[in-house]
Specification:
This protein has about 700 residues and is α+β, with helices and mostly antiparallel strands. Among the domains are: about 120 residues, Oxidized Rhodanese, domain 1 (3-Layer(aba) Sandwich); about 90 residues, no CATH class; about 110 residues, Dna Ligase, domain 1, CATH 3.30.1490. Helices cover about 30% and strands about 25% of the residues. It contains 17 helices and 37 strands. Strands 13, 14, 15, 20, 25, 26, 33, 36 and 37 form a 9-stranded mixed sheet that branches. Strands 3-2-1-4-11-12 form a 6-stranded mixed sheet. It has a 4-stranded parallel sheet with strand order 6-5-9-10, sandwiched between helices. The protein is globular. InterPro entries: ACX-like_C, ATPase_NBD, Hydant_A_N, Hydantoinase_A, Oxoprolinase-like. One of its GO terms (cellular component) is cytosol. GO terms for molecular function: 5-oxoprolinase (ATP-hydrolyzing) activity. It holds the Pfam family Hydant_A_C. This is Hydantoinase/oxoprolinase family protein.
Length: about 700
């Protein structure tokens, strides 16, 4: 029997999902993350699930990994010593940026220092003009002198970003080829390969991020590849991209910037699968782990994408799932500010030392400690008994640092911690919903991550969401989503023209070129013609506008009818995003884009339509704190539940990877895909709920 394995490295835990390609049977496990070397946690997780299931390493037919190495390297500024080569006169592009203030009303606010200091930004006397013509060629003597300088400064990575190289990459390629021969152990990045688009600051910043993280990412992936080979796993190592697609290791090593949201993107892919299966096409996803909350939006079954993002104020312009991240997780630390107000996060206890209740040396009160005190997580152990819970120490630290200073009981203080962190999360969710023109009342809340189902009901009520959906394995949702992702490649070609003056023949020629490149790349990866899918689009804007909207095309060959349809879509999208549109105003094309998919055969769906198990009984009871008082609450085991089961609140549903909270006024139903659907209304009749949900 053949299996697929997905591993997602988080700030606190490393999640592992294993699924049979033939039967759809799923196995999961979690191990502590190892921040000092995340590959150790990955290998520990693989070995543990192999031991628990008894299968052989040789049975692992597909291995995919969601890596945080690129993100952490950037956040911690622990990347390689990088040199930036620019056109003469443009060495300060990174420093100047867009001259926007990071915080409008904070006069002391300062932008982050560039990843490449000024002494490591070197100029080359070359030039491409605005028409893409070579005005000044590369001088070989200049390159010889340059190599000596790079040796003197002991550069580990070199980034080449010349003006107008998005129109003509000839000079960048000459420099790259020369440096690869002269400095074979130095990583080389050129901007025309990473981001062939107009806007020199964003293009340079994206290329610099790519080069800065490349050496560390290459070492990590090659090491992991070696260990996988030693275990005799037959699969190539695949990596999850920020855009929800899959790439192989060689591509990742060249373009690590594509993985900055690697793990969270897997959860959004899983959310798209739920939208495909059920009637819930509009979803707000929350992925709450030990360190942070990642939230995104799925509308009409499709995730929202962006080509413009920032990590710690460093612009990164590559296609990725549109996501907002805040420091709100189970390990988020509660504290009292100078004004006496209770605050939570963004600082986290992380994996080490972790929350106090984990007994690993934590000394600060956290969200997990508050949940433990209120009875919302198992007071004895987590992870199926592998992690013991120290309630006494959690109560002591919250009493000393939160409750006593605020004059509250320990329970009230713990409840306050949860209310504050929930408010923080709601504020973050509104960034990708309300602030983007979406009404959260039209969406269901899809909650996953180890801590997401603990907080989902409170968040959904605040947002006014229709209901809450908890997938079968919420704590492993990102790893599970990776197992169903397709190979994906994104291509872009800068093409600037007024739409009324567009040369359709020229446009189609450029699109055909991208198509041939993408088709050949998929073929080289072993995909047949029937396993390929392509999606073309145009970046459009009002004339003289600075920002684009991406508009999908219905066909790979662009006609006048297609252009008219694109114009209508643009005005509609602009009105939704910005609240207005200017019908009749001239539009411009900025870029041509093409996405190619290598369709991977999906594992068999594990559907349970055997009907309700009438003998469903709680495995116990305990006192759980809801809205100011303790309730005698039924405790259920998730694995005991069948399609059609209705669970009335208050209830706690426990499983290896997470805990689900159902409030006193709620009811939940198990659907045929094992999802728990919680109605976000009071006193909903069980039969009405059952009829509504089983329409799936």
């Amino acid at each position: 029997m053949r299996y697929r394995i997905g591993v997602d490295t988080g700030g606190t835990f490393t999640d592992v999902a294993l699924i049979s390609e033939e039967s759809g049977e799923t196995f999961i496990t979690k191990v502590p993350s190892t921040p000092e070397n995340s590959s150790i946690g990955v290998l520990n997780g693989v070995k543990q699930i192999i031991m628990e299931t008894g299968i052989q390493y040789e049975d692992l037919n597909f291995f995919i990994h969601g890596s945080t190495v690129a993100t952490n390297t950037l956040l911690e500024k622990k990347g390689a010593k990088t040199v930036l080569l620019t056109t003469k006169g443009f060495k300060d592009v990174l420093q100047i940026g867009r001259q926007t203030r990071p915080k409008l009303y904070d006069f002391r606010a300062r932008r982050n220092e560039p990843l490449v200091t000024r002494d490591l930004r070197l100029e080359i006397d070359e030039r491409i003009n605005a028409k893409g013509e070579v005005v000044k060629e590369i001088d070989q003597n200049q390159l010889t002198e340059l190599v000596e300088k790079l040796k003197d400064v002991d550069a580990k990575a070199v980034v080449v970003s010349f003006i107008n190289s998005f129109l003509n990459s000839e000079n960048e390629i000459i420099v790259k080829e020369f440096l690869e021969k002269s400095l074979p152990n130095v990583s080389i990045t050129i901007s025309s390969e990473v981001l062939p688009e107009i806007k020199e600051y964003e293009r340079t910043s994206t290329a610099v991020v790519n080069g800065y993280v490349m050496p560390k990412m290459e070492y990590y992936l090659r090491y992991l590849e070696e260990k996988i080979t030693e275990l005799k796993i037959p699969s190539e190592l695949y990596i999850m991209q920020s855009n929800g697609g899959v790439i192989n290791t060689d591509t990742t090593v060249k373009m690590p910037v594509r993985t900055v949201l690697s793990g969270p993107a897997g959860g959004v892919v899983g959310g798209s699968n739920i939208a495909d299966q059920t009637e819930y096409k509009n979803l707000i996803t929350i992925d709450m782990g030990g360190t942070s909350l990642d939230t995104s939006l799925i509308e009409n079954g499709k995730p929202q994408y962006t080509t413009s993002s920032k990590i710690q104020d460093f612009p990164i312009h590559v296609p990725m799932v549109e996501m907002h991240t805040i420091g709100a997780g189970g390990g988020s630390i509660a504290w009292i500010d100078s004004g006496g107000a209770l605050r939570v996060g963004p600082e986290s206890a992380g994996a080490v030392p972790g929350p106090v209740c984990y007994g690993k040396g934590g000394t600060e009160p956290t969200v997990s400690d508050a949940n433990a005190i209120l009875g919302r997580i198992n007071p004895n152990s987590l992870l199926g008994g592998k992690m013991k819970i120290d309630i006494h120490s959690a109560k002591k630290v919250i009493k000393e640092k939160i409750a006593d200073p605020l004059g509250l009981t320990v329970e009230k203080a713990a409840e306050g911690i949860l209310k504050v962190v929930n408010t923080n999360m709601v504020r973050g969710i509104r960034v990708i919903s309300v602030e983007k023109g979406h009404d959260s009342r039209d969406f269901s809340l899809l909650a996953f991550g180890g801590a997401g189902p603990l907080h989902a009901s409170d968040i959904a009520e605040e947002l006014g969401c229709k209901n809450i959906i908890i997938p079968p394995n919420p704590g492993i949702a990102c790893a599970m989503g990776m197992l169903t992702a397709d190979v994906r490649h994104d291509y872009v070609q800068s093409y600037i023209s007024e739409l009324s003056q567009i040369n359709l023949e020229e446009l189609n020629n450029k699109l055909s070129k991208l198509y041939r490149i993408s088709r050949d790349e998929l073929a080289a990866e072993g995909f047949k013609k029937e396993e390929m899918k392509f999606q073309a689009s145009l970046d459009l804007r009002y004339k003289n506008q600075a920002y684009n909207l991406n508009i999908e095309l219905d066909d790979m060959y662009v006609t006048e009818v297609e252009i008219r349809n694109a114009v209508e879509k643009f005005h509609s999208s602009h009105n939704k995003v910005y609240g207005f549109s200017r019908l009749g105003e001239e539009l411009e094309v900025a870029n041509i884009r093409l996405i190619s998919y290598g369709l991977i055969k999906k594992p068999k769906e594990n559907i349970n339509n055997n009907g309700p198990n009438q003998d469903l009984e709680p495995i116990g009871n305990r006192e759980v704190y809801f809205e100011g008082s303790f309730y005698n609450t039924s405790i259920y085991e998730r694995s005991d539940m069948y399609s059609g089961n209705v669970i009335k609140g208050p209830a706690v549903i426990e499983q290896l990877d997470s805990t689900v909270i159902i409030h006193p006024y709620q009811e939940a139903l198990v659907d045929i895909y094992h999802n728990l659907v919680i109605q976000n209304v009071k006193k909903k009749a069980g039969r009405e709920l059952k009829n509504a949900v089983l329409k799936n």
